Amino acid sequence: MFNIIKVNHEEEFNETGAAIIAGLLQANPKAVLGLATGSTPIGVYKKLIERCQKGLLSFRQVTTYNLDEYVGLPKDHEQSYHRFMDEHLFRHVDINPLNTFIPDGNSGDPDQSAAYYNTLLEKSPFFDLQLLGIGHNGHIGFNEPGNELIGNTHVVTLHESTRAANARFFASSEDVPTHAITMGIGAILHAKQILLLVKGKEKSEVLRRAIYGPITPQCPASFLQVHPRVLILTDVEAGAFL
Ligand SMILES: O=P(O)(O)OC[C@H]1O[C@](O)(CO)[C@@H](O)[C@@H]1O
After folding, report:
1. pTM of the model as a whole
2. 39 touches ligand 1 (CB under 6 Å)
3. What is the pLDDT at residue 77?
4. Which of 39, 179, 198 has most ligand 1 atoms within 8 Å of CB, for mutation?
5. Residues of the chain with pLDDT > 70: what percent?
6. What is d(CA 167, CA 114) in angstroms, rounded to the nearest whole number?
7. Per UniProt, what is one Pfam family of this protein (predicted)?
8. What is the pLDDT of residues 36-63, one digit of tens each?
9. Atom of ligand 1 nearest to the CA of 40
């Protein structure tokens, strides 16, 4: 079931997203969070950092699991999601690095890394909150549209449209990895609560499909319709139809 908050501008978007996460951490300082990368959550992370640096919030006892990671990028590569999380959140807050988990895309054996990540998730308590963005093609994590979806963490071949969308972050489009490791749809739907962040008019159509379209692996985000507690934070552009 969806609850929707539609905001008018970027500042309000980031402040609202951060307030939701901060509220959860204040109520439960030992919360387990599923975290997302991509451009959408960056401003929300910034607001969380500000709160933490003002002493209003602590990540000391928080545990985090990231959704996904590219295959074949060293952890310190500019575009790896390890580096992203370090730069956009972890290094600025008081989180214990031993409590942050991200699939290892650079082990040389991505299938084994995915299997290992599954064992970690199996041992973890249910996530208190899963943060999500959405790809233009309806992917969540890197669960790409197709004829079927996979429940567990697995290796995916990235769609050309996803590689093209993310090419803006790389020196050239050939540098975008062809594969990634992603948490599966099952693990995502296990979270007690999901916060989906969606910004910009180019995401409006896919958001509409996710909310009102048929539940189909052709639009992985449509599976959020079966979750009892999904909060969508959208701006007026993405949520124009709401
Ligand atoms: O927020 P963006 O940059 O549009 O990215 C969309 C989605 O694609 C991913 O980068 C792939 O996992 C997600 O992290 C993100 O939610």
Report:
1. 0.97
2. yes
3. 96
4. 39
5. 100
6. 24
7. Glucosamine_iso
8. 999 999 999 999 999 999 999 999 999 9
9. 1
